[in-house]
Hints:
Blueprint (H helix, E strand, L loop, with lengths): L4 H12 L3 H20 L4 E3 L3 E8 L2 E4 L6 E4 L2 E8 L1 H7 L6
Antiparallel strand pairs: 1-2, 2-5, 3-4
Helix pairs in contact: 1-2
Organism: Desulfotignum phosphitoxidans DSM 13687
Family: Belongs to the bacterial histone-like protein family.
Protein name: Integration host factor subunit alpha
Amino acid sequence: MAITKSDLINEISEQLDISPAEARYELESLLEVMKSTLASGENVMVSGFGRFQVNDKAPRKGRNPATGEDMTLEKRRVVTFKTSGKLRDQINGVTHE
């Protein structure tokens, strides 16, 4: 099961004691900043959470799965996420004393 945007909005609304409409606006604003930053080729680093990084993929040979025909896949940019050590430890239940 995955948390949805609506779930995030409800959680933000409850934690910050603001209306769901305000929470939606804040979340959408954050996501727009992240999207435009990534689209410009810059990375987004959130301390204690992780880094969203833009990577270039070179053109490569591929195959159309429907026809089996060989084809060349164009170069493209992809976004990857690398978790911070702090979040990775939290996910794995590691505690530091």
